[in-house]
């Protein structure tokens, strides 16, 4: 019997079954190196993230922290807190994760590798194939837009964490700094009362006054001593708050406290403050980004009416010649109530985001007005104490002391004059403390961290800042 191959002159030997497998494996390896196309929002988000990372977490690790000394400026302590505070890093990592989410949302699903076989006594069919799901037109772009807006909101949450950390550090520093002044003033007044007690005792020994004067002096001294003990004891929780603001654990040594006060009064009126706050406040910017995310969500919800597709092919490597079976699929978005509910949900989220922004703007307006009033009020009270009440109280003590030594006034009047001067001096320190805290609160509302005190300058919006005059108080 003649061989047909010899008659035709060609070979009908089927290709080895492994050839089709090899072709599919090559296709899989080729696809494994594919990259999607980055959207404009993704490019911008990654550029911003890279810019911040070079300062905040170069090579994804915390940079060397600045050394802290008592003569260090407040900017060194701010740099330490912003780089070391866990709350800031938490917000940074959440923002970092949201940037990566953009890539996930704009990417196609992974291709599906399939296998089929008809098996009786032997395998009569052996098919391998690849298929790819293709979301409907515009869906990937809409998903990327939603993820991009969410990432932008996360960025502003990170910026807000930076601002909040800076404010917390300033507040804890001011409270600690002025507490030390209160302690120094109270110690000085206790020494003055001890001197007055010695004078009263000497005059009592000379028979010029009764023992009542000595007892009054002792009572006043004991009261001030107790006040001093309370002030010194309150330094422990204040130091704990200062350490926490720096991101230090309770088991770590106490940090030094800056030896000088750095104040930054704002030379702008209330209307300017509000305008700057509306432009710079990261909470408002974050809420606006949430509105954009909701709007992108609406666009995505409308696209649920568009079907998704799947394309692919399978090859039977046992057939001669190799049989190719195309695959084509399409989803059927039949559930209209589901699509309508998705659109309604997205619309409701957009309206809720808009209401949150309006609420925040109203609250910000009230907060700026309250802080501006408090700043003016404290300024007036401080001027009264420094320019009039404290000098007059000091003169009153000197006059009462001379009158008491001359026997013209009672010891009660002398003690009252001394108490009044102490009260005015402590009120002056308290007013200075509250003034600095109010200024820090206003800086938080308008995102006004001084640029020279902010080591993370690339990540904060400084396009509009209030004019400031910085001075140091020894």
Can you characterise this structure?
The chain is of the alpha+beta class. It has a single domain, classed as Outer membrane efflux proteins (OEP), CATH 1.20.1600.10. 65% of the residues lie in helices and 9% in strands. The strands form two sheets. The protein has a four-stranded antiparallel β-sheet, with helices on one face. It has a two-stranded antiparallel ribbon with strand order 3-6. A hairpin with a 6-residue loop joins strand 4 and strand 5. Mean pLDDT is 82; it is low at 1-17 and 459-474.
Q: What is the CA-based Rg, rounded?
A: 38 Å
Distance N terminus to C terminus?
A: 116 Å
Mean pLDDT: 82
Give the biggest beta sheet.
Answer: 4 strands, antiparallel
Assigned CATH class: Mainly Alpha
DSSP E strands, number: 6
> CATH H-level name... which superfamily?
Outer membrane efflux proteins (OEP)
What is the CATH topology descriptor?
Outer membrane efflux proteins (OEP)
How does the SSE layout of this entry go?
Layout: H1 4-8, H2 17-32, H3 40-56, H4 74-84, H5 86-106, E1 112-119, E2 123-134, H6 139-205, H7 211-245, E3 261-263, H8 270-280, H9 282-302, E4 309-316, E5 323-330, H10 336-405, H11 411-445, E6 471-473
Helix pairs in contact: 3-5, 4-6, 5-6, 6-7, 6-9, 6-11, 7-11, 8-10, 9-10, 10-11
């Amino acid at each position: 019997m003649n061989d047909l191959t010899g008659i035709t002159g060609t070979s009908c030997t089927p290709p080895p079954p492994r050839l089709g497998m090899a072709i599919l494996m090559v296709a899989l390896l080729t696809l494994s190196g594919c990259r999607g196309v980055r959207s404009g929002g993704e490019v911008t988000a990654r550029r911003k993230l890279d810019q911040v990372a070079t300062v905040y977490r170069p090579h994804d690790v915390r940079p060397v922290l600045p050394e802290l000394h008592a003569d260090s400026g407040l900017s060194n302590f701010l740099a330490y807190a912003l780089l070391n505070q866990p709350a800031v890093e938490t917000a940074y990592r959440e923002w970092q994760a949201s940037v990566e989410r953009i890539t996930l949302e704009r990417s196609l699903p992974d291709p599906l590798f399939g296998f089929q076989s008809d098996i009786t006594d032997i395998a009569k069919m052996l098919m391998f194939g690849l298929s790819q799901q293709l979301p409907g037109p515009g869906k990937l772009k809409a998903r990327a837009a939603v993820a991009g807006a969410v990432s932008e909101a996360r960025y502003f949450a990170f910026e807000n964490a930076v601002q909040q950390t800076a404010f917390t550090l300033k507040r804890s520093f001011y409270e600690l700094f002025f507490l030390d002044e209160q302690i120094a003033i109270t110690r000085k007044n206790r020494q003055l009362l001890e001197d007055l007690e010695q004078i009263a005792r000497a005059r009592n020994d000379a028979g010029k006054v009764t023992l009542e004067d000595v007892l009054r002096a002792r009572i006043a001294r004991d009261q001030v001593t107790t006040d001093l003990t309370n002030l010194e004891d309150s330094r422990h929780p204040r130091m704990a708050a200062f350490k926490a603001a720096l991101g230090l654990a309770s088991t770590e040594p106490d940090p030094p406290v800056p030896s000088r006060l750095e104040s930054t009064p704002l030379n702008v009126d209330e209307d300017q403050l509000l305008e700057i706050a509306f432009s710079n406040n990261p909470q408002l910017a974050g809420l606006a980004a949430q509105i954009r995310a909701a709007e992108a969500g609406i666009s995505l919800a409308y696209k649920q009416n568009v079907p998704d597709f799947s394309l692919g092919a399978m090859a039977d490597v046992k057939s001669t010649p190799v049989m190719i079976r195309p695959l084509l699929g399409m989803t059927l978005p039949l559930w209209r109530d589901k699509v309508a509910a998705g659109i309604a949900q997205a619309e409701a989220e957009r309206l809720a985001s808009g209401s949150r922004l309006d609420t925040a703007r109203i609250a910000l307006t009230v907060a700026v007005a309250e802080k501006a009033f408090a700043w003016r009020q404290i300024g007036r009270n401080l001027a009264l104490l420094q320019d009039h009440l404290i000098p007059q109280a000091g003169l009153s003590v000197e006059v009462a002391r001379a009158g008491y030594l001359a026997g013209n006034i009672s010891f009660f009047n002398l003690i009252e004059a001394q108490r009044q001067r102490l009260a005015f001096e402590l009120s002056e320190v308290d007013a200075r403390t509250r003034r600095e805290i109010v200024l820090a609160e206003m800086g938080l509302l308008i995102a006004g961290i001084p640029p020279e005190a902010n080591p993370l300058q690339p990540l904060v919006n400084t396009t509009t800042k209030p004019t400031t005059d910085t001075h140091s108080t020894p």
